[in-house]
Backbone:
């Protein structure tokens, strides 16, 4: 998109931080990149002379998003009301998810928090990093972070000239994404090529974390088992996981669903690597969902979208990229650690922690139970009693309804008399 005026950006920064821009940066460039939500400036931090990137929110963008979301809600309600087949896609629930994501994206402090969290999660990982945030120069409307020197992942020729191994890079990209998703339950959900840079050493540097996704431990287990089931052709287990997760209603037959899953999985395994697409898998699954009354899962929408985008980026790096072969080590390792003996011990520790927390609350719970028991006994012995103010309020309400009832009868009688008169 076209950038907005630098003078406006400076005012937004000063308003957000409550300080003069000249006291914060010794140099501040014209916009170097502009998108729908914000634009980025290159600056030099005054405190230490370090070069940083300053992201500034686009003026008026929050109101524009609100209006767009109103349109989304209107369209969703129209679909659900007039097209019964669309109800299982849950358009209103999907719009709710998009609205929440947009609210987070409109506050750059929350994006800074996402960078910070991911930075902690991947501190010991190789091949993937995110820029560090300067919290003192970050507010609702501006975000200051490390300047990234690297080649955009969309610049294939530039990476080739720099001697980057594109095949290895594609594997690192998909494995990093799966590791973040399964191990951490927190992933960058906007990993298109414009948000990915590559350093001279081949490290992937991700920017723009306005959109991030989360998965709970239960959802991560379901995802890992479904992916691993497709990788190993264990279609019955894939079907069972769908039932355990509640994705397929219980009244359906698990073996019939496993048959449908096999019809999806077998053709994929029979194709060459360049045809093994996550997008194709999700499309085929979508076609099967209607047969088994499966509803859309808004909480998985960001994950599914990002999986397709990341795989697409990997294929631009390596047209023969094999999603399943690259995913197997990460998914298999997660399953071994979390569903094997180590995982059982971890679950047991969590169970003990929950029991300890419950034990600490037992005295309070016991006291509440005793008070409730006394109240029930008193009610059983003496009957249910109302205090005087409640009785008076009920009496006034009844009187009001009675007067309205009499008035309604007089109106009806008058209308009847009027009708009879003109009939005669």
Residues:
């Amino acid at each position: 998109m076209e950038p907005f005026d630098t003078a406006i950006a400076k005012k937004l920064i000063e308003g957000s931080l409550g300080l003069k821009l000249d006291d914060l940066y010794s140099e501040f460039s014209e916009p170097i990149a502009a998108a729908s939500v914000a634009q980025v400036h290159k600056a030099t931090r005054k405190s230490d002379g370090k070069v940083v990137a300053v992201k500034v929110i686009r003026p008026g963008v929050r109101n524009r998003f609100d209006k767009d979301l109103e349109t989304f809600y209107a369209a969703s309600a129209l679909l659900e009301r007039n097209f019964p087949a669309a109800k299982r896609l849950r358009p209103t629930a999907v719009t709710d998810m998009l609205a929440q994501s947009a609210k987070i994206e409109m506050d750059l402090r929350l994006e800074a928090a996402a960078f910070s969290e991911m930075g902690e999660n991947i501190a010991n990982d190789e091949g993937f990093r995110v820029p560090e945030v300067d919290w003192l120069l970050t507010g609702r409307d501006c975000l200051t972070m490390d300047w990234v020197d690297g080649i955009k992942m969309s610049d294939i020729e530039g990476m080739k000239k720099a001697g980057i191994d594109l095949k290895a890079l594609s594997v690192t990209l998909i494995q990093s994404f799966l590791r973040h998703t399964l191990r951490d339950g927190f992933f960058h959900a906007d990993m298109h090529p414009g948000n990915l840079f590559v350093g001279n050493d081949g490290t992937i540097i991700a920017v723009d974390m306005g959109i991030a996704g989360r998965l709970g431990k239960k959802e991560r287990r379901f995802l890992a088992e479904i992916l691993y089931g497709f990788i190993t052709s264990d279609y019955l287990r894939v079907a069972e996981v769908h039932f355990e997760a509640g994705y397929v209603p219980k009244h359906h037959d698990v073996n019939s669903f496993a048959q449908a899953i096999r019809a999806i999985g077998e053709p994929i395994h029979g194709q060459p690597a360049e045809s093994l697409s996550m997008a194709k898998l999700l499309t085929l699954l979508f076609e099967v969902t209607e047969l088994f009354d499966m509803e859309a899962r808004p909480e998985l929408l960001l994950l599914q979208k990002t999986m397709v985008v990341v795989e697409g980026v990997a294929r631009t790096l390596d047209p023969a990229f094999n999603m399943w072969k690259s995913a197997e080590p990460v998914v298999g390792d997660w399953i071994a650690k979390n569903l094997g003996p180590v995982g059982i011990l971890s679950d047991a520790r969590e169970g003990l922690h929950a029991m300890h927390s419950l034990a600490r609350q037992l005295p309070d719970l016991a006291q509440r139970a005793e008070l409730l028991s006394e109240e029930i006994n008193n009610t059983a012995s003496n009957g249910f009693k109302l205090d005087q103010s409640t009785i008076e309020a009920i009496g006034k309400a009844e009187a009001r309804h009675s007067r309205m009832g009499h008035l309604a009868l007089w109106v009806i009688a008058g209308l009847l008399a009027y009708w009879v008169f003109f009939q005669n």
Summary: The mean pLDDT is 85.
